[in-house]
Structure prediction request, 217 residues.
Amino acid sequence: MGVSEPLLSAAGVAAAVIAILVDGRSAALVAVVVVPAGLAPTIAVTGGGPALVVLAGAAAAGLVLGLAVRRVALQLPWVAGFDPLIPAFAPARGLFGPRSARAAAAAIAIPLASWVSFNVPIGEVTAITGLLFPVAYVWGCGTLRLIVARTGEDLAVGVVMIALAGAATWQLRAGPGAIVGAAGVAALAPLAVGVAEWLRGRHQLRPAAGQAADATR
Prediction:
């Protein structure tokens, strides 16, 4: 029985859409879990078990590290600083909100990923036309999320998506011997989650305006 490209693509596309649209304090955590799950069918077909271990390890490390550093950060006293959820240069609400821009970016990424999957040879998948589409789509959505990023959480999610897609591509191009290199690239994902969750924990218990003013005096 041959490989069902539509089914493989559907899993990767669904994961990319969820990751590019997810908002809130757990956005990076959601991305580091759903992206490996969405890419797993493609990687299982092209890279086998060792390649799956890299994605699963990145997801587990991101989840554990993120929750751990958030818990530690919550134990520390609040200080004024960088809040990953406050937009850097635009109001939180508007006629075209952040999700509208990211939804448009997700649509733009479809033809980009399609062209890459049919025209760019990547190692062992050169003979399997279109099989690269889920990985290329996740990478494209991650890049566009960085471009339209307004908050620190947006940046973290973009890094997670690009790192995991990059790790998957590394393994597809270099074969089973690329596990170490792919693991190094994938390690950027849990690190991004850890930073986002640390900042989240430091600002989750933000005091009232009067208390914050007193704390900065």
